[in-house]
Specification:
alpha/beta, Rossmann fold, formyl-coa transferase, domain 3, three-stranded antiparallel sheet, about 40% helix, elongated
Amino acid sequence: MGDLALSDLRIVEWGEGVSAPFCTKLMADLGAEVIKIESPGAGDEIRAYGPFPGDIPDPENSGLFLFLNTNKLGITLNPLIPEGKEMLLKLLRQADLLVESQPPRLLEEATLDFPALHEANPSLVVTSITPYGHTGPYRDWKGYDLNCCALGGISSGIGYPDREPLTPPLSQSGYQGGLQGAIASMIALFQRDLTGEGVHVDLAEVECWATFHIGVAAQTFLSDDRVRRRSGHRALHRPYPDEVLPCKDGYVCLDTPQNRQWRRLLEVMGNPAWASDPIFRDRLETAEIDGEKADGYLTGWLMQHTKAEIFKMCQDNRIPAAPVRTVKEVMEDPQLKARGFFIDVEHRGGRLKYPGACYQMGETPASIRRPAPRLGEHNEEIYCGRLGVPREELAALQKAGVI
């Protein structure tokens, strides 16, 4: 542990779902010690989510939970009752960082908001990741991916115009919040090291979308008065093609913003006669007005080739393109294999394949050193070894619903 990038960092995580666990996973995989708090009984709600090995539901084998909680120590605790609150404060007096995703009003009513925690440990950094943040008119509202993507401006551009708006798949609000929460936490810790004072990082998932991902749409509105709208598989306000189209064995994404890329694509296709159709004189207008007709031309050629063939031809000719891959194809991707992206991890049920880090660090690489904890797996180690609770009292604490 000593030679890992964050091996001197002590973190407590009190949050369910994706955002807080993903935030702390990013730091745990770099060596930080993370103590994950789960509710006594059911534990983190994500334990009920799949996929499950063999499609057999098991709270100890949720693929999502296993991925989000590598390298963590796991305890059960109810901080909302007096005995549990005292346990939490003892843990936080030994910690550098708390990452939590609890409702703001709940923390205030339990006197576990930042002012109270700052009094207990003035050097503690507290990172709160919630749908709408700790201030503002929506702070006490429940929020999910659908709400955050819509209010953050993302859903305005996803989906077909004659149907309902969509969200990006697979809890992206949580992942974006977790990623930016980890970055903000590290900045706050650097400041703490300079000043000795902990701070409160108040991060709203909806603002992650509104600031980090909506910038292009905001810029085109401010500079060109263009309003983003849903356009299905085709991007508007960009030269045609910028879209996903069918091919012989699936789908590919084509994007030729530069005229020279468009000309090279036409050369790859054998300079077809249809390229002289007047609809291609202004490719911005093509996307807006004649997209369906243009798609018919391109699809005729695409359907003669597989996505691997199209990808290779486009790579060889410096044309932006990408295959739309299935999960199986992603697992077999040669580039990801060459990078060693997928990692085999020993698990209670055998060896499972996990996604590795999306970055590489030469001297202190991220690694998965232990699988996600079983529910309450480290109760004895933490309560007896760290907090001095006599072993004979653990059963009584469990019966009382404290742990």
